[in-house]
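Hi C.,

You asked whether I'd gotten around to modeling the 220-residue construct. I have! Everything is below, sequence then structure, no commentary in between.
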Amino acid sequence: MDTVETARQIAADLLEIKAVFLRPEEPFTWASGILAPIYCDNRLTYAFPEVRRHVEEGFVALIREKYPECEALMGTSTSGIGHAAIAAWLMELPMGYVRGGGAKKAHGRNKQIEGSLLPGQKVVVVEDLISTAGSAIEVVETLREAGAEVLGIVSIVTYGMQRGKDRLAAAKIENTSLTNFDTLVEIAAETGYLAPGAAAAMRAFRDQPDDSGWMELLKA
Protein backbone atom coordinates (compact mmCIF):
# COMPACT_ATOMS: atom_id res chain seq x y z
CA MET A 1 0.00 0.00 0.00
CA ASP A 2 1.45 3.36 -1.06
CA THR A 3 0.48 5.45 1.97
CA VAL A 4 1.59 8.78 0.48
CA GLU A 5 -0.35 8.26 -2.74
CA THR A 6 -3.41 7.10 -0.81
CA ALA A 7 -3.23 10.09 1.54
CA ARG A 8 -3.07 12.51 -1.38
CA GLN A 9 -5.90 10.79 -3.25
CA ILE A 10 -8.24 10.74 -0.25
CA ALA A 11 -7.37 14.35 0.63
CA ALA A 12 -8.11 15.48 -2.92
CA ASP A 13 -11.39 13.52 -2.88
CA LEU A 14 -12.56 15.05 0.41
CA LEU A 15 -11.78 18.57 -0.73
CA GLU A 16 -13.45 18.04 -4.11
CA ILE A 17 -16.76 16.79 -2.69
CA LYS A 18 -16.62 19.40 0.09
CA ALA A 19 -16.53 16.79 2.85
CA VAL A 20 -13.73 18.97 4.23
CA PHE A 21 -13.85 22.77 4.33
CA LEU A 22 -10.70 24.77 5.03
CA ARG A 23 -11.72 28.31 6.00
CA PRO A 24 -9.01 30.06 8.04
CA GLU A 25 -10.29 33.55 7.20
CA GLU A 26 -13.75 32.71 8.60
CA PRO A 27 -13.23 29.94 11.18
CA PHE A 28 -15.85 27.53 12.38
CA THR A 29 -16.82 27.29 16.06
CA TRP A 30 -16.53 23.77 17.40
CA ALA A 31 -18.78 22.49 20.18
CA SER A 32 -15.89 23.02 22.58
CA GLY A 33 -15.84 26.71 21.69
CA ILE A 34 -12.56 26.45 19.78
CA LEU A 35 -12.32 28.57 16.64
CA ALA A 36 -11.15 26.18 13.95
CA PRO A 37 -10.17 26.71 10.30
CA ILE A 38 -11.39 23.22 9.34
CA TYR A 39 -14.73 21.46 9.24
CA CYS A 40 -15.11 17.81 8.30
CA ASP A 41 -18.25 15.89 7.28
CA ASN A 42 -17.07 12.52 6.00
CA ARG A 43 -20.64 11.24 5.74
CA LEU A 44 -20.64 12.89 2.32
CA THR A 45 -18.32 10.15 1.09
CA TYR A 46 -21.31 7.79 0.96
CA ALA A 47 -22.95 9.96 -1.71
CA PHE A 48 -20.05 9.76 -4.19
CA PRO A 49 -19.41 6.20 -5.45
CA GLU A 50 -15.87 6.82 -6.71
CA VAL A 51 -14.80 8.52 -3.50
CA ARG A 52 -16.51 5.83 -1.46
CA ARG A 53 -14.61 3.18 -3.42
CA HIS A 54 -11.29 4.92 -2.71
CA VAL A 55 -12.08 5.06 1.01
CA GLU A 56 -13.25 1.47 1.38
CA GLU A 57 -10.48 0.00 -0.76
CA GLY A 58 -8.05 2.10 1.27
CA PHE A 59 -9.43 0.65 4.50
CA VAL A 60 -9.23 -2.91 3.17
CA ALA A 61 -5.62 -2.50 2.03
CA LEU A 62 -4.66 -0.85 5.31
CA ILE A 63 -6.27 -3.50 7.51
CA ARG A 64 -4.82 -6.37 5.49
CA GLU A 65 -1.36 -4.83 5.68
CA LYS A 66 -1.30 -3.82 9.35
CA TYR A 67 -3.71 -6.28 10.93
CA PRO A 68 -3.77 -9.52 8.89
CA GLU A 69 -4.99 -11.38 11.99
CA CYS A 70 -8.16 -9.21 12.19
CA GLU A 71 -11.29 -11.29 12.81
CA ALA A 72 -13.99 -8.59 12.86
CA LEU A 73 -14.55 -4.88 12.24
CA MET A 74 -16.32 -2.63 14.72
CA GLY A 75 -17.65 0.76 13.66
CA THR A 76 -18.02 3.82 15.85
CA SER A 77 -21.53 5.18 16.19
CA THR A 78 -22.67 6.61 13.95
CA SER A 79 -19.96 7.84 11.60
CA GLY A 80 -17.97 4.62 11.37
CA ILE A 81 -20.84 2.19 10.95
CA GLY A 82 -21.28 2.43 7.18
CA HIS A 83 -17.56 2.29 6.46
CA ALA A 84 -17.10 -0.70 8.76
CA ALA A 85 -20.00 -2.49 7.05
CA ILE A 86 -18.69 -1.96 3.53
CA ALA A 87 -15.09 -2.83 4.38
CA ALA A 88 -16.20 -5.93 6.30
CA TRP A 89 -18.29 -7.04 3.31
CA LEU A 90 -15.30 -6.63 0.99
CA MET A 91 -13.11 -8.59 3.41
CA GLU A 92 -15.78 -11.19 4.19
CA LEU A 93 -15.48 -10.47 7.91
CA PRO A 94 -18.06 -10.09 10.69
CA MET A 95 -19.02 -6.53 11.55
CA GLY A 96 -20.67 -4.73 14.43
CA TYR A 97 -20.72 -1.35 16.11
CA VAL A 98 -20.62 0.27 19.51
CA ARG A 99 -23.32 2.67 20.64
CA GLY A 100 -21.90 6.10 21.39
CA GLY A 101 -21.59 7.88 24.72
CA GLY A 102 -21.72 4.68 26.74
CA ALA A 103 -25.42 4.40 25.91
CA LYS A 104 -27.19 1.06 25.97
CA LYS A 105 -30.49 0.30 24.31
CA ALA A 106 -33.36 1.11 26.65
CA HIS A 107 -35.28 -1.96 25.53
CA GLY A 108 -34.75 -5.55 24.47
CA ARG A 109 -31.38 -6.92 25.62
CA ASN A 110 -29.97 -3.49 26.59
CA LYS A 111 -26.90 -3.98 24.41
CA GLN A 112 -24.21 -1.38 23.86
CA ILE A 113 -22.30 -3.50 21.34
CA GLU A 114 -24.36 -4.50 18.32
CA GLY A 115 -23.41 -7.58 16.33
CA SER A 116 -21.68 -10.72 17.52
CA LEU A 117 -18.52 -10.27 19.59
CA LEU A 118 -16.72 -13.31 20.95
CA PRO A 119 -14.35 -13.24 23.95
CA GLY A 120 -10.79 -12.82 22.75
CA GLN A 121 -11.85 -11.88 19.23
CA LYS A 122 -9.30 -9.73 17.39
CA VAL A 123 -11.05 -6.60 16.13
CA VAL A 124 -10.21 -3.37 14.35
CA VAL A 125 -12.24 -0.23 15.06
CA VAL A 126 -13.33 1.84 12.05
CA GLU A 127 -13.73 5.60 12.60
CA ASP A 128 -14.19 8.50 10.21
CA LEU A 129 -12.25 11.25 12.02
CA ILE A 130 -9.68 11.45 14.80
CA SER A 131 -9.31 14.86 16.42
CA THR A 132 -8.94 14.67 20.21
CA ALA A 133 -9.73 10.91 20.03
CA GLY A 134 -12.10 10.87 23.02
CA SER A 135 -15.02 9.05 21.38
CA ALA A 136 -12.80 6.49 19.65
CA ILE A 137 -11.07 5.66 22.93
CA GLU A 138 -14.46 5.12 24.60
CA VAL A 139 -15.33 2.60 21.88
CA VAL A 140 -12.05 0.74 22.34
CA GLU A 141 -12.49 0.62 26.11
CA THR A 142 -16.04 -0.73 25.73
CA LEU A 143 -14.79 -3.48 23.42
CA ARG A 144 -11.93 -4.34 25.77
CA GLU A 145 -14.33 -4.58 28.71
CA ALA A 146 -16.40 -7.01 26.63
CA GLY A 147 -13.34 -9.22 26.15
CA ALA A 148 -12.23 -8.20 22.65
CA GLU A 149 -8.60 -7.79 21.66
CA VAL A 150 -8.54 -4.43 19.90
CA LEU A 151 -5.70 -4.44 17.38
CA GLY A 152 -6.05 -0.77 16.51
CA ILE A 153 -8.15 1.96 14.92
CA VAL A 154 -8.33 2.85 11.24
CA SER A 155 -9.83 6.20 10.26
CA ILE A 156 -10.34 8.33 7.18
CA VAL A 157 -8.72 11.48 8.55
CA THR A 158 -6.63 12.50 11.54
CA TYR A 159 -6.07 16.12 12.51
CA GLY A 160 -2.79 15.09 14.13
CA MET A 161 -3.46 17.11 17.27
CA GLN A 162 -1.08 16.47 20.12
CA ARG A 163 -3.95 16.04 22.57
CA GLY A 164 -5.32 13.19 20.46
CA LYS A 165 -1.89 11.57 20.10
CA ASP A 166 -1.29 11.76 23.86
CA ARG A 167 -4.67 10.26 24.69
CA LEU A 168 -4.21 7.38 22.26
CA ALA A 169 -0.74 6.68 23.60
CA ALA A 170 -1.97 6.71 27.21
CA ALA A 171 -4.73 4.25 26.29
CA LYS A 172 -2.22 2.10 24.35
CA ILE A 173 -4.19 2.39 21.12
CA GLU A 174 -2.72 2.68 17.64
CA ASN A 175 -4.56 4.77 15.04
CA THR A 176 -3.71 4.80 11.35
CA SER A 177 -5.55 7.18 9.02
CA LEU A 178 -5.92 7.14 5.25
CA THR A 179 -5.11 10.86 5.12
CA ASN A 180 -4.28 13.68 7.50
CA PHE A 181 -4.46 17.38 8.23
CA ASP A 182 -1.07 18.19 6.71
CA THR A 183 -1.89 16.43 3.45
CA LEU A 184 -5.23 18.23 3.22
CA VAL A 185 -3.42 21.56 3.67
CA GLU A 186 -0.74 20.55 1.15
CA ILE A 187 -3.26 19.62 -1.55
CA ALA A 188 -5.32 22.74 -0.84
CA ALA A 189 -2.26 24.96 -1.23
CA GLU A 190 -1.22 23.26 -4.47
CA THR A 191 -4.66 23.71 -6.03
CA GLY A 192 -5.13 27.32 -4.93
CA TYR A 193 -7.87 26.42 -2.47
CA LEU A 194 -5.87 28.15 0.28
CA ALA A 195 -4.58 31.68 -0.10
CA PRO A 196 -0.79 32.24 0.13
CA GLY A 197 0.32 32.16 3.75
CA ALA A 198 -2.81 30.41 4.97
CA ALA A 199 -1.08 27.03 5.14
CA ALA A 200 1.21 28.26 7.92
CA ALA A 201 -1.82 29.44 9.90
CA MET A 202 -3.51 26.07 9.44
CA ARG A 203 -0.47 24.23 10.79
CA ALA A 204 -0.22 26.62 13.74
CA PHE A 205 -3.82 25.79 14.60
CA ARG A 206 -3.05 22.08 14.50
CA ASP A 207 -0.15 22.55 16.91
CA GLN A 208 -2.08 24.75 19.37
CA PRO A 209 -5.83 24.56 18.70
CA ASP A 210 -6.72 26.24 22.02
CA ASP A 211 -4.68 29.33 21.10
CA SER A 212 -6.35 31.63 18.57
CA GLY A 213 -2.96 33.20 17.86
CA TRP A 214 -2.81 31.19 14.63
CA MET A 215 -5.19 33.75 13.11
CA GLU A 216 -2.53 36.45 13.43
CA LEU A 217 -0.49 34.63 10.78
CA LEU A 218 -3.20 35.43 8.24
CA LYS A 219 -2.37 39.11 8.58
CA ALA A 220 1.33 38.64 7.82
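If it helps when you're writing up: Helices lie at 3-16, 49-66, 81-91, 134-145, 162-170, 181-190, 198-207.

Thanks,
B.
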